[in-house]
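Reminder: ligand-aware prediction takes two inputs, not one.
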Amino acid sequence: MTVSLGMPAAPPEVLAPRRPTRTIKVGSVEVGGNAPISVQSMTTTLTADVNATLQQIAELTAAGCDIVRVACPSQDDADALPEIAKHSQIPVIADIHFQPKYVFAAIDAGCAAVRVNPGNIRKFDDQVGEIAKRAKAAGVSLRIGVNAGSLDKRLLEKYGKATPEALVESAVWEASLFEEHDFHDFKISVKHNDPVIMVKAYEMLAERGDWPLHLGVTEAGPAFQGTIKSATAFGALLSKGIGDTIRVSLSAPPVEEVKVGLQILQSLNLRQRKLEIVSCPSCGRAQVDVYTLAEQVTQGLEGLTVPLRVAVMGCVVNGPGEAREADLGVASGNGKGQIFVKGEVIKTVPESAIVETLIEEAMRIAEEMGEPIDEASAGTPTVSVG
Ligand code: SF4
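Here is what comes back for the chain with iron/sulfur cluster:
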């Protein structure tokens, strides 16, 4: 049975228009203005280990990362920057703390941008003129990265702790110094580990100028906690149009940060949705193990790039209705699965064939939507049902 898939008529709805900002360039990636909100991560390898760092950058690139940041705490790391910047597939930002000489090394190394932390770079304010001059000449943009954990001592004394006001005052002061030197190619971050303080700081900062903003909850924690903190804080800001580039900080492999960041943007329609598994939470009516089914379908379809919605429903009470909005779905019951395409039942299969059938149908629909399907693997899913 052939069912028309239709095409989306209008762009998906978003919660608020983007806050107008100036646009800057981080190498080949634009940040701010109408540019798509980019996803960043940071390598965890020793930067001086060029091969390991480039390997991790390649993994991040494959996961969908737009911009990568590398730490540069020593001369060995600074010496590695030219090779890394040259061979990375995505723009590289050098992350500089304490030593101003590494800011200049990163600019000379061909990094796309440099993150400076004005709170802990020695005599930073005295160096702003020279940094601005060198960055401008090299076409390198900057991030003024204010962080609660390393706030300028003067502001800590004034406010007692890293309040939203203190973070914003630090950022606005440093921004004014760069602007006095006619340097405008920078974005700003005001990170805190408390999402409430972080959100307030970014809201205040957004009122003070048209700088593109880099969102981040610093030291957000292990994957579960960090994901929730970041999703909550970014959601609060992005739903008001605030935020031009994001980095989810997790105590987990950096690829996980990218996956979470992309999912946050996709959830808010700020990135085109890709594969989306709409699975029911299961309840007393479920006649099939929904969790396992959803997991197996997710694994079987990993890597699809077209915006395919697959509904996995535990029973036939609400299943057909809930599956109707999806491209493809299953409602299970009585040892069988009704397979739906755009809400219409195309076949009923035994429970043991649900996963295999869903994957076959998903591949067929994905191909019609333009997904390049590897002939060797299409139609022969490796998932098995117990
Ligand atoms: S689809 Fe059925 S099993 Fe799943 S939550 Fe709804 S009623 Fe419960």
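The mean pLDDT is 89. Residues 280-283, 285-286, 313-315, 317-319 surround iron/sulfur cluster (CB under 6 Å). We will return to this case in the review session.
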